[in-house]
Design brief:
The complex is a heterodimer. Chain A is of the alpha/beta class. Chain A contains 5 helices and 5 strands, in the order βαβαβαβαβα. In chain A, α3 links the parallel β3 and β4. In chain A, α2 runs parallel beside α3. By secondary structure, chain B is α+β, with helices and mostly antiparallel strands. Chain B contains 21 helices and 22 strands. In chain B, a hairpin with a 5-residue loop joins β15 and β16. The longest helix of chain B has 32 residues. Chain B is elongated, with a radius of gyration of 36 Å. Classes of the chains: A alpha/beta, B alpha+beta. At the A-B interface, α1, α3, α4, β5 and α5 of A face α1, α2, α3, α6 and α7 of B.
Chain lengths: 121, 686
């Protein structure tokens, strides 16, 4: 089973993603509610893939992405974003985000994105 | 579009959505009200509000509550502008009004959702108001502002492009043309396209693409959707390798990769541009941070639990307390000497009582959230009535059972409205009287034994004895000569149903309900309300509420073959009466003389129509109980003993048949018998 870490400040989003992923054979190994904790959890759990919200308190998703990438350049991070955040998504892509999901999202979109990213080298 | 169509997925999501949204709205409201006090929006507050609205927008959109999502989006936009452009001279009051109006709208919608209704409110007008506020800000704001995404994208773009000299160094062996189509509905196709380019930059020596202004404009999204995204690339990689790389693109629908024989054609691409990407990531659009607001260390050790589970746990512990009594006080054991059994029983008792304390403490939550809600009430009232009032909170960390907290929010609101409306004078009047211009309402909570005492004190004009008496007379509420009534008795008249001194019921404290509703609410949770006042200096309303409803200390009494339980807290004393102290008044009512005072006697066997042999007063026992300074002497056969009892509501088939006055519920005794818990307030009431 593919191990996923979910980083999002909204409990609702975390639960949504968790339910969607668990239904599709992923294993959610951890959740974090801000970037800072997301980075910590990444180092601790070494998941195969991370879903990362952008707007979060303490440390936003872009900073967290950069920190994770610095720690592990091979890290696979998928950003969660909303319309209107294009500049930040750009920044995330430049900083090594493997892909991104636009909110509101459907189950298939999340699953497909993660599966696709997981087979990338 | 159905985002979450599966019902089994939907329902738990809905719970979380409601829970989280309500929490965030509360947080937001506090933020706005604090901000109002300091009279400006700090960077931190703006960030927080932006973030909360962003979260609500996303969550609501997932749950298909489009009206909520849309409104949240509008507010998010507004705060985005505030965050990015930091305009000066904002009309803080107007801004707060807009945000609070938005909060109210979402609250109402969430309430509808919670109650299973459709969230059908229309926020279009409010959104329009917010947008026009934003456009005014944009016009007058200090900096030439534009939160336009495109503009920013251009900024980003300019940063990303570098001179073409860098690319000239090496030339790839192979040239390819790739045409990519993305799947419909994946969103932000232009950025997806750009990320493909970004991923190719390390393996390519030359890279061009159409549309070339891919990240600069929204039009490119449309172009990519319709015509696909074309990349020309020179690279050392083989066809297979490039193909493999591109195939892994997320949401790739179609890929047409062709090798071009002549390495030159790359140059013939119309409006060709050399592009290379800067190696270092570009500075992220910074989200300003002041100091961190949330302490991160604490939260991880907390989990949220469904209240129903706690209720169930409480029930189970209650059952266990009863079961324990059933075992240890089992009639079969009577007269036996069981040393080891007693030892084990003591251990069991110790553990059950610890468990009980623990469960109770889990259900306790600080009253602060309820108190803080009052800031909003004070604010709204002050604005409408044009008064100045400070709200002071004392003892907000006091903990009360969750069920009880839910019952005190409304009464508190009502009392505060009353204080501001009727108690606190207008600023000019206060000045004339030599009081500080702004009034103060103090909310205090403190523990007192197994009760929590909540007071609402204002420094307004206080209650007017004459006015109250006059009004009470008009409504026929006085049964005693006026001169005999103490001030406190007179003030207590305001709690009677049908009493209202204000001739014109104002929009706020009126609402067609009086103080009697407050009293009723508090009494349903077993509490009591009292009032005190000093003319010219203000009034104090005190509410005494039990910490918890579930388990009370009770005194069991026997009447005939029936058992009753009286909450120990209500008992003043119990004694055997002598015949000479019994008086019959002219109406034939029995009274009893205790230390020179006369109290009415209530024969429980008559009240509840129970057969008993003990009808002669000196043979039975008198229990004097008090409710709001009214005393009554209850007559029962005998006292059985004191114990903690688990309060159960009467079964619904009894409640549905008729409301039985004087009974608060029932409980199971250790020997398995049922005891009815007496509702003292109901019995004392004439």
């Amino acid at each position: 089973m593919k191990e996923v870490l979910i980083v999002d400040d909204a409990a609702f989003m975390r639960a949504s993603i968790r339910i969607m992923l668990e239904k599709n054979g992923f294993k959610v190994v951890g959740e974090a509610e801000n970037g800072l904790k997301g980075v910590e959890k990444y180092k601790e759990l070494r998941p195969e893939i991370v879903t990362m919200d952008i707007t979060m308190p303490e440390m936003d998703g872009i900073e967290a992405l950069k920190a994770i990438k610095e720690f592990d350049p091979m890290a696979k991070v998928v950003m969660l974003t909303a319309m209107g955040q294009e500049p930040m998504v750009m920044d995330a892509v430049m900083s090594g985000a493997k892909s991104f999901i636009v909110k509101p999202f459907k189950e298939e979109v999340v699953v497909q994105t993660l599966k696709k990213v997981l087979v990338q080298q | 579009m159905f985002t979450i169509s599966d019902r089994s997925t939907y329902e738990p999501m809905l719970d979380i959505f409601i829970f989280e949204t309500v929490k965030q709205l509360e947080q937001l409201e506090q933020l706005v009200i604090c901000t109002e006090k300091s009279n400006c929006y700090t960077e931190n507050a703006i960030n927080e509000i932006f973030r909360i609205m962003h979260t609500i927008k996303g969550s609501a959109a997932m749950m298909l509550f489009d009206n909520i999502s849309m409104l949240a989006h509008t507010i998010e936009d507004l705060f985005y502008f505030l965050r990015e452009e930091k305009p000066r001279d904002i009309d803080c009051a107007a801004l707060s009004d807009l945000v609070l109006e938005g909060v109210d709208f979402i609250k109402v919608e969430v309430d509808k959702i919670k109650n299973g209704h459709k969230a059908d409110g229309n926020a279009a007008d409010l959104s329009k108001k917010i947008r026009s506020f934003l456009s005014i800000l944009k016009e007058h704001g200090g900096s030439p502002a534009s939160s336009d995404v495109n503009k920013q994208l251009q900024d980003v773009k300019q940063k990303y492009y570098i001179s073409q000299d860098k690319t000239a160094a090496a030339a790839g062996k192979n040239a390819f043309r790739a045409l990519l189509h993305f799947e419909e509905g994946c969103g932000m196709e232009h950025i997806r396209a750009y990320s493909v380019v970004h991923n190719l930059r390390n393996v390519s020596t030359e890279l061009n693409y159409i549309p070339e202004n891919v990240i600069a404009s929204d039009e490119s999204v449309e172009v990519i959707r319709k015509e696909g995204f074309t990349i020309y690339i020179k690279t050392d990689l083989t066809y297979g390798e490039i193909n493999e790389l591109l195939q892994h693109t997320v949401f790739l629908k179609e890929l047409a990769l062709t090798q071009m024989d002549d390495p030159e054609p790359v140059n013939e691409i119309p409006q060709k541009k050399h592009i290379m990407l800067e190696d270092d990531g570009v500075e992220a659009p910074k989200l300003q941070k002041e100091e961190a607001t949330v302490s991160s260390g604490l939260q991880q050790s907390l989990i949220s639990v469904n209240v129903n589970k706690l209720d169930r746990l409480m029930d189970l512990v209650g059952e266990m307390v009863i079961a324990e009594a059933m075992v240890t006080q089992n009639p079969d054991l009577k007269g036996l000497e069981l040393h080891n059994f007693q030892k084990a029983a003591r251990q069991l008792k110790k553990i059950t009582s610890e468990l009980q304390d623990m469960v109770m403490s889990v259900r306790m939550i600080p009253i602060s959230a309820t108190f803080h809600k009052m800031h909003r009430i004070v604010r709204d009232m002050c604005r409408k009535l044009n008064k100045e009032v400070q709200l002071e909170l004392i003892g907000e960390e006091t903990e009360v059972d969750k069920n009880i907290i839910e019952h005190i929010s409304d009464p508190l609101m009502h009392l505060i409205r009353n204080s501001i409306d009727h108690g606190i004078e207008a600023a000019e009047d206060r000045k004339l009287k030599g009081k500080p211009q702004s009034g103060t309402i103090t909310l205090t909570a403190q523990n007192a034994g197994s009760d929590v005492v909540i007071t609402v004190r204002d420094d307004g004009k206080g209650l007017n004895r004459e006015k109250i008496l006059q009004r009470a007379k008009e409504h026929g509420l006085i049964h005693k000569p006026e001169e005999e009534m103490s001030d406190k008795e007179v003030y207590s008249l305001i709690f009677l149903p049908g009493f209202s001194t204000k001739d014109n019921i104002s929009e706020f404290s009126g609402r067609g309900v009086g103080m009697d509703v407050v009293v009723k609410n508090i009494e349903t949770v077993g509490g009591s309300v009292s009032v005190d006042s000093t003319a010219g200096a203000g009034a104090t309303i005190t509410m005494k509420i039990p910490l918890t409803l579930a388990i009370i200390d009770g005194m069991n009494i026997k009447v005939g073959s029936a058992m009753y339980t009286i909450p120990t807290i209500a008992i003043k004393e119990s004694f055997r009466a002598e015949k000479k102290n019994i008086i019959i008044d002219p109406d034939g009512n029995e009274m009893i003389m205790v230390r020179g005072q006369c109290y009415p006697v209530l024969r429980l066997h008559e009240r509840f129509r129970v057969k008993t042999d003990v009808t002669d007063i000196p043979k039975g026992i008198i229990v004097m109980v008090e409710n709001r300074e009214d005393y009554i002497c209850m007559y029962a056969d005998e006292l059985v003993g004191e114990q903690q009892v688990v309060v159960k509501t009467l079964p619904s088939y009894i409640r549905n048949m008729r409301r039985i006055r004087g009974l608060a519920g029932c409980t199971l005794l250790g020997d398995g018998r049922i005891s009815l818990i007496l509702d003292i307030a109901g019995l004392v009431e004439k």
